[in-house]
């Protein structure tokens, strides 16, 4: 039996953001000097650790944050003037009130098509106490139309997210690097026999 799994560039972007965090774990064990056998390392007082998630983690309000943003990788290596490009983003709402993403604008593209989860285009719901992921396989998804500049991997353009209640925030959206193994992934044969 074989399994097929589809990998998305945005998933790879989030994975790349998480990898540096995995390397931050300490090597101290219960028998190490300085280990006070605390149940929770977060209980240890100390200064804030500099570094962490390389993503934007940009607050729009106390409750609404953009935690990741990027532009799709171009198949031929460059987005050219006049082309349309998918915008990836992760939006977190930790509040008790929902909001709506009503517009995305920027100086380096003519407009943005917002494709909601249900119904015709226009706005994208950001429910209370939930996350919204804008991906190419959406909905929800966003297509930036008619680029006015050429873009290669790691180059970025400013993108403004406009919310109905939270207001707006502008972030640099980089073209994501081509993820390794992009496309379909063929899993190895299952060694267990079917009975």
From TrEMBL:
Keywords: Signal. Residues 186-195 have a biased composition (Acidic residues). It comes from the Bacteria. The keyword Acetylation does not apply. Transmembrane segments: none annotated. Residues 1-22 form the signal peptide. Residues 174-195 are annotated as: Disordered. The keyword Acetylation does not apply. This is Uncharacterized protein DUF461.
């Amino acid at each position: 039996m074989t399994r097929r799994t589809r990998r998305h560039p945005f998933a790879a972007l989030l994975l790349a953001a998480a990898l540096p965090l995995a390397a931050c774990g300490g090597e101290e064990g219960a028998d190490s000097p300085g280990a006070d056998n605390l149940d929770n390392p977060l209980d240890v007082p100390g200064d804030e650790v500099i570094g962490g998630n390389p993503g934007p983690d940009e607050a729009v309000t106390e409750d609404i944050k953009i935690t990741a943003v990027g532009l799709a990788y171009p198949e031929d290596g460059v987005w050219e003037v006049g082309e349309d490009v998918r915008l990836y983003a992760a939006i977190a709402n930790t509040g008790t009130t929902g909001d709506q993403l009503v517009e995305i604008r920027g100086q380096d593209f003519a407009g943005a098509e917002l494709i909601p989860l249900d119904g015709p285009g226009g706005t994208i719901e950001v429910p209370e106490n939930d996350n919204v992921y804008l991906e190419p396989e959406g909905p929800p998804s966003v297509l930036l139309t008619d680029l006015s500049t050429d873009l290669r991997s790691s180059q970025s353009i400013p993108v403004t997210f406009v919310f109905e209640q939270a207001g707006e925030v502008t972030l640099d959206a980089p073209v994501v690097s081509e993820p390794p193994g992009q496309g379909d992934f063929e899993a190895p044969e299952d060694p267990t026999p079917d009975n």
